[in-house]
Design a protein that fits this description.
This protein is mainly β and about 160 residues long. It has a single domain, classed as Porin (Beta Barrel), CATH 2.40.160. About 10% of the residues lie in helices and about 45% in strands. The chain contains 1 helix and 8 strands, in the order H-E-E-E-E-E-E-E-E. Strand 4 and strand 5 form a beta hairpin. It is elongated and about 120 Å long. The N and C termini lie far apart (about 85 Å).
């Protein structure tokens, strides 16, 4: 009887061990190498340095920092942008420089902060303050004492 009991225990133990599995954990899925765009083109009203119609090109060399330069019908501009998220399609705070007009048609040049709202796709609009650096011959006589003005733009952007 003792042998039978030992045999029964041995068989039940083998049965218990046979129920275990040797699953090998699969490695975590690899992140996609497809990264988000780091450049964009903006086109619209008062872009490219404050021109009636202008375009800007922006590149993000660092995760939240963008460098922007643009040209319009009669202006050019540049800026350094700090994006609220580390992607090109996020809103940003910028330090902008605008120069409106050339030569005899020079109107003025400004520098100042600007907040630019960017929707997830296509639409963007910005508003800020421009501290007047130079006033040209086309500057209105009635606002010769002005030292600050509102700068703004509206348009579309296309991540590249």
């Amino acid at each position: 009887m003792k042998r039978f009991f030992l045999f029964l225990m041995l068989i039940s133990t083998l049965n218990v061990f046979s129920q275990t599995t040797n699953e090998i954990a699969s490695p975590a899925p690899l992140k996609s190498d497809v990264s988000s765009p780091k450049t964009a083109i903006n086109v619209g009203v008062l872009m490219g340095g404050g021109s009636l119609i202008g375009a800007d090109f922006e590149v993000m060399p660092l995760p939240r920092i963008g460098i922007q330069a643009g040209i319009g019908i009669s202006s050019f501009g540049a800026g350094i942008n700090y994006h609220l998220k580390p992607q090109i399609n996020s809103s940003f705070i910028a330090l902008q420089y605008w120069k409106q007009g050339f030569g005899a048609n020079f109107y003025g040049s400004y520098i100042g902060p600007m907040f630019v709202f960017r929707a997830k796709k296509i639409f963007q609009a910005g508003i800020g303050l421009g501290y007047i650096l130079n006033k040209g011959t086309n500057w209105p006589e009635k606002s010769k004492d002005q030292s600050v003005l509102a700068i703004y733009n509206i348009g579309v952007y296309f991540p590249l």
